[in-house]
Design goal:
The chain is of the alpha+beta class. It is about 65% helix and about 5% strand. The chain contains 20 helices and 13 strands. The strands form 5 sheets. It has a 4-stranded mixed β-sheet. It has a 3-stranded antiparallel β-sheet with strand order 8-10-11, with no helix packed on it. A two-stranded parallel ribbon has the order 5-9. A hairpin with a 2-residue loop joins strand 6 and strand 7. The longest helix is centred in the middle third of the chain and has 51 residues.
Length: about 675
């Protein structure tokens, strides 16, 4: 298959190669300067000692001579770093174990006119990828590529869609520019080693500095020179990767064209649009079992459960189905994204799904659809494989053999119960999913006897209003960060018009005005909702109860901000634990923390006594809270952190944050449930 690469593809390939070549030039230049510095420092050291041999000159001479060697050692230390690649999460398959899949892949390889993978691995997730056994020598000799196939992906596509996805991956196999990826990988390893992997090097020079005060003078100088080198390397890292990622995005477009020529554009398009839902379904199952592990329960087959969740969520979103799989449209993906701001992400390795879909539709290449069965049918015993990878997923848990497997029917029942417990009634049409009732003065609101249906408050126009508001707030925050130069960009598009980064001040006041006007409209709708339900409550003698629930919600809404502020303050006050901090400063920091801990313990005591949190307080949370409240923990003694005590502190902080958020949700849900009950009474 001969598909012409675009001019942009060629341009990005050239830029990526030039950036790697420039790094080599910079590195060689730094190396020569370091060699020169070493020679000069050794000669200077010898000269100092020879000029007047004595203890001081001996110390200064040896210290000066060591200066250059430290710089050289820093520039060469990456050579001695061993890189171990962990593939324990992967399962290799062979032609003997999966002959049908290998024939399927072989046919695609022949059509694409590329090489068969060196090895094929199965992974647990929703993904497929190509990777090298990348090493230093892969930059100079041909290295065969490996193929990784995620069972979470196979489980959520048809055979024709899987053919398109595999053709996309083999489109990468045929790209000579993938070789550039091997160079970038190794260059990144070198730069990473010199920027961040310095623990043993730092210890070495610290030991040298401790030998003599004279040596420490030159160690300080060496450190300053190394910091300058690291600044240069950081700039090189950004330059190389921005160019390579631009090439990577072009490689994706090219691989999509290969896939369209093999399987047609429609199967790839439909699978791309479904991927977010497939991934979300998989992660929902993972999250479900993260909460079940404390009960010693694991999954029997995580992929059957993924399939159930995929179908369940698609039905909840009223999606159409095709070949027993949800048919997600571009509109379904974008209906809640109302942002008018477009910023090209130069650090993205892939184009957006929208960009890929647009490119596929422009190509409009159709092919005969050969098989619409599940891609699972390509494996001889897919259920056994699924169970094996599920077991591997739980193998990292302590005593995995003691875990009990949850039956699929029990999973379905519990998942639906959890879903309903954590979502709002469908009558609200998602109105409250990402917003809370806006504050208003309840005493000023009269009930409204209206013939309107409740749906008028939650129709498409009102839902759009909510997501317009969210988009405006997000756009304003992003533009504020551009104005403050938190984001380093030159231009952006807003509402179809191009702006320079220094023109954000023209837009922000306009957006703030739109936000203010929209907030008034939303608040008026919220008042209308209250008034409508108040009328229904009054008919049933429940108006006082409705009013008290709104008052309780608004009170909690105000208090939640203060409680969240305490959590943020605790995070900031304990941040030093993650950083290298002098001992005296550590002691002082923990002393300052005591005031915040007093507030935290007071809030935790309130939570433990509040009926609202009763269903959310697990035995593990209560046990840790009890430990925390019973003692005045020290956290640091004998110039060492006390890990056990720190674990109690951080778990208490995190559980506090979880519970205040959970409490907020429960009060909100109680209010909304009460309103829906008024509709049926």
């Amino acid at each position: 298959m001969n598909i012409e690469v675009s001019n942009n593809f060629k341009k990005m390939t050239t830029k990526a190669i030039i950036s790697i070549a420039l790094f080599l030039i910079v590195y060689i230049l730094l190396l020569f300067l370091a060699i020169g510095l070493t020679i000069v420092s050794v000669i200077g050291g010898i000269y100092i000692i020879a000029a007047k041999p004595m203890a001081i000159t001996l110390g200064l001479g040896i210290g000066l001579a060591s200066l250059g060697f430290f710089i050289l050692a820093f520039l060469f230390k990456f050579i001695f770093k061993k890189h171990k690649i962990d593939r324990s999460h992967l399962t290799e398959i062979t032609e003997q174990t999966e002959p049908k899949l290998f024939r399927f892949i072989s046919d695609i390889v022949k059509e694409v006119e590329t090489d068969f993978p060196k090895k094929i691995y199965l992974s647990k997730d929703v993904n497929a990828s190509v990777f090298y056994d990348s090493s230093f020598w892969s930059m100079f000799f041909p290295i065969k590529k490996n193929l990784q196939i995620g069972l979470g992906l196979v489980n959520t596509v048809t055979e024709q869609e899987f053919k398109a996805i595999m053709a996309h991956e083999f489109g990468h196999f045929s790209q000579k520019s993938m070789k550039v990826g091997s160079y970038v990988y190794n260059v990144n390893q070198v730069i990473f080693n010199m920027l961040f992997d310095n623990e043993s090097f730092d210890k070495m020079i610290q030991k040298w500095a401790n030998v003599s005060g004279y040596f420490s003078i030159f160690v300080v100088i060496a450190v300053r020179i190394i910091e300058a080198i690291q600044w240069i390397l950081k700039k090189m890292y950004d330059y190389i990767n921005i160019n390579y990622l631009a090439l990577s995005r072009e490689m994706e477009f090219h691989a999509d064209e290969v896939a369209a020529n093999v399987a047609g554009f429609l199967p790839l398009k439909e699978s791309l649009l479904r991927m977010d839902l497939a991934d979300h379904s998989y992660n929902s199952v993972i999250n479900f079992y993260e909460n079940k592990l404390s009960e010693n329960i694991k999954s029997e087959n995580i992929y059957k459960e993924q399939n159930f969740v995929l179908t369940f969520l698609a039905n909840e979103s009223q999606l159409a189905f095709k070949n027993d799989l949800p048919l997600v449209s571009s509109l379904d993906l974008s209906k809640f994204n109302k942002s008018k701001l477009i910023i090209k992400d130069q650090w993205a390795s892939h184009p957006s799904t929208d960009e890929r879909i647009s490119n596929l539709e422009r190509l409009n290449i159709s092919r005969e659809i050969s098989n619409q069965e599940s891609a699972n049918s390509l494996f001889l015993s897919i259920e056994t494989l699924q169970q094996n990878l599920t077991s591997k997923l739980f193998s990292f848990v302590e005593n995995p053999d003691e875990l009990l497997s949850l039956k699929i029917d029990d999973f379905k029942t519990e998942y639906i119960e959890n879903y309903e417990k954590n979502t709002f009634n469908k009558v609200y049409n998602g109105y409250y999913d990402n917003k809370n009732p806006n504050y208003f003065e309840i005493k000023d609101i009269e009930s409204s006897n209206t013939n309107h249906n409740v749906e008028m408050f939650f129709n498409k126009e009102k839902i759009d209003m909510i997501y317009d508001f969210i988009a405006l707030e997000n756009d304003k925050n992003t533009l504020s960060n551009i104005e403050k130069k938190v984001f380093s960009i030159k231009t952006f598009d807003y509402d179809g018009q191009k702006f320079k980064a220094n023109e954000t001040s023209l837009l922000i006041p306009k957006i703030e005005k739109e936000i203010e006007n929209l907030k008034v409209e939303i608040t008026n709708n919220d008042i209308g909702i209250y008034s409508h339900f108040y009328y229904l409550a009054k008919e049933k003698g429940l108006e006082t109860e409705l009013k008290s629930k709104y008052i309780a919600f608004f009170k909690n809404d105000k208090e939640h901000d203060q409680k969240s502020e305490l959590y943020i303050n605790l995070l900031n006050a304990t941040e030093f634990v993650s950083n290298v901090t002098p001992f005296e400063q550590i002691k002082s920091n923990f002393k300052s923390l005591k005031k915040l801990e007093t507030e935290l313990k007071k809030e935790i005591s309130i939570i433990l006594e509040n009926e609202l949190y009763k269903s959310e307080l697990t035995e593990l949370i209560k046990e840790n809270f009890d430990k925390y409240l019973k003692e005045n923990w020290v956290y640091f003694a004998n110039d060492e952190y006390i890990d056990y005590e720190l674990q109690i502190l951080f778990k208490s902080i995190n559980d506090y944050s979880y519970l205040i958020s959970r409490g907020y949700f429960l009060i909100k849900k109680d209010l909304l449930n009460f309103q829906t009950e008024l509709l049926s009474k």
